[in-house]
Amino acid sequence: MAEDLSAVARFLYESGTLKHARRTGWWMAGVRDPESVAEHSWRTSLIASVIAKLEGADPARAAFLAVWHDSQETRTGDVNHLGKKYADGADPLAVTADQTAGMPQTLADTVRELVAEYEANESREAVCARDADKLECMLQGIEYQAQGYRGTQRWIDNSRKRLVTESGQRLADELLAQDPLDWLNTAMRRPD
Questions:
Q1: Are 37 and 60 in contact (CB under 8 A)?
Q2: Are 66 and 133 in contact (CB under 8 A)?
């Protein structure tokens, strides 16, 4: 007999709300239409795989952790650092336990273990995923700044100084040295 997947289906619908949930800290920097949590999580996962590979960690595991790192925000919303000063933060492990209730046990256990590993920040992959989260925020801040949002420098600086891996720090330096459209200019100069 097949396992009941109704809780999984509900979670898949729930996870879609992250495509509409905005990263609220950017509003304080004056960004009118900031990226969604889903957009942030996608690029964070990509960056996590890059950092992990460069650091000799498992890139697939780091990306897997990064995919789930903000999944609780379907229920809590994106609470920025100022908001956390005034509101008690929800426990990501408790939120994840609620989100995965009723799922097949092997799936629920996997998701709960991923979130616990990310939150503990002890494995090499978790460290890489956390650095990716900071690096993605820095990168987004640089891009917003290039679009004229001058208030993002605080996010750029704070994210940069919180990086712990050598690869994350080196990537940050490289990103700061480039214009966000350097990739396009380089690609356009290449002969067909």
A1: no
A2: yes
Q: Contact at 8 Å (CB) between 129 and 163? A: no
Chain segment 18-65, per-residue pLDDT in tens: 999 999 999 999 999 999 999 999 999 999 999 999 999 999 999 999
Q: Measuring CA to CA, how many Å separate 28 from each of 9, 36, 43?
A: 35, 15, 22
Query: Cα–Cα distance between 51 and 14 in angstroms, integer?
Result: 29
Judge contact between 167 and 54, C-beta under 8 A: yes
Contact yes or no for 125/57 (Cβ under 8 A): yes
pLDDT tens digits, residue range 72-94? 999 998 888 888 888 877 899 99
Distance set, CA 31 to CA 3, 41, 120, 176 (Å): 45, 19, 32, 20
* Six-digit token string for 99: 């989100």
Residue tagged 């460069």 (tokens)? 54
165 and 51 in contact (C-beta within 8 Å)?
yes
Give the number of other Cβ atoms within 10 Å of residue 117's Cβ.
Answer: 18
pTM above 0.85, yes or no: yes
Alpha-carbon distance of 184 to 178, in angstroms, equals 12
DSSP 8-state code for residue 5? -
